[in-house]
Amino acid sequence: xxxxxxxxxxxxxxxxxxxxxxVTSLAPSERRVAEVCLGRxxxxxxxxxxxxxxxxxxxxxxxxxxxxxxxxxxxQHLRMLLLRDxxxxxxxxxxxxxxxxxxxxxxxxxxxxxxxxxGTGLSxxxxxxxxxxxxxxxxxxxxxxxxxxxxxxxCASALAFRFVLNGRPAEAPVDxxxxxxxxxxxxxxxxxxxxxxSGMNSYTxxxxxxxxxxxxxxxxxxxxxxxxxxxxxxxxxVVGGAGPWSAHGVSSTVVVLSFLIGLQVAVCNVRDxxxxxxxxxxxxVVGLLNPGG
Length: 293
Fold this sequence. Notes:
Layout: H1 15-22, H2 28-39, H3 41-44, H4 49-55, H5 60-69, H6 75-91, H7 103-120, H8 127-139, E1 143-147, H9 149-165, H10 176-184, E2 191-195, H11 202-213, E3 217-222, H12 228-232, E4 235-238, H13 251-269, H14 274-289
Helix pairs in contact: 2-5, 4-5, 7-13, 8-13, 9-13, 10-11
């Protein structure tokens, strides 16, 4: 069944981010439609549904259905948003593109692409879900953070550290066995925050299942709106969706980490004493690093 169309248009420049957040859940023929849109948005904006169907080796009806499953009212709605984004991008261009022949040129290109993806990273996020997550994390007796892989594991550790620094006890075990054992000992008063860009990592999903079976609230942070993690989570936070298409594969990690930092700030903002706890933690860290000072 098609998902309900979005109640409002996504922010300018974020249409592709919305597509990326949903593409993995589409049927194969519909996914081909989405992939053509992601790969050739400037051309799709001027095509007809029949043109897109031909390029995706499918039918016009499938194009319309794919657009609806991506959250748009139909292909014309998608075209309108792509044209809007294309116009905004063209009006915002200043000078020639950064040359990539030099390290500094490549560096500027990566930073420009990351900045663009950061600007649209919150497009798939549900505000009510965010409010619920902040409340749950602020009130929880115990917070277990789970993340595996080269991107999600560092994000989990960084988030746990920032929580502890601000007086919000949290833990992010690295070992997958310890993750699952810890999740199985949670209670209804606890939260398990699970980070997985794909939402499909079996090592990450196992602790989510254990936490849910234990009665804890499971919060999922992912880049894909219809994934196994979203299906398991009590609260799903979908952000980013940059995937490997942009910024040389780094945008997704940067967007997720930025979101998690914002989440930590929001949680600590509603907890009494967070600022004082952070000041005490900073003094303690300085003392550890400078024992003779």
